[in-house]
Amino acid sequence: MPIPQIVIDTNVIIAGLRSRNGASFQLLRLVGTKSFNIHLSVPLVLEYEEVILRQLPKLSIDVSDVQNFIDFQCSVATHHQIFFLWRPYLRDSKDDMVLELAVKAECDSVVTYNTRDFAGIE
Questions:
Q1: pTM beyond cutoff 0.85
Q2: What domains appear along the chain, each with residue ranges and CATH number?
Q3: What would the DSSP string read from start to end of 36-74?
Q4: In the 8-state DSSP scheme, what is residue 110?
Q5: How wide is the angle at C-alpha 12 spanned by C-alphas 9 and 15, nearest 5°?
Q6: Which Pfam family name is an example for this entry (predicted)?
């Protein structure tokens, strides 16, 4: 059976870093285990970093942990350059980069809690 190809939206990253009790944390624990392959682009990595640093007071990690987390994600992910833009396409234009990456990477899933803004992309 082929390994699922996914893009993880920033809200799932934040949820996983906030609590060890939820599905988001379990998903983050599986990154790099070959249960699925994650896909990243430079804009998405920069968003991960910016949002995590902004949320840092609510998280039980420090700045060096953030850098280690980002470095690990980048080390196990498949990297993509996006040469086309579909903006604005989604309800929240900040999510367009996630959709563009998922299309470029031919992903099976976008993992997000923000399903309302991704409605209709199937």
A1: yes
A2: 5-111 (3.40.50.1010)
A3: SEEEEEHHHHHHHHHHHHHHGGGSS--HHHHHHHHHHHH
A4: E
A5: 150
A6: PIN_3
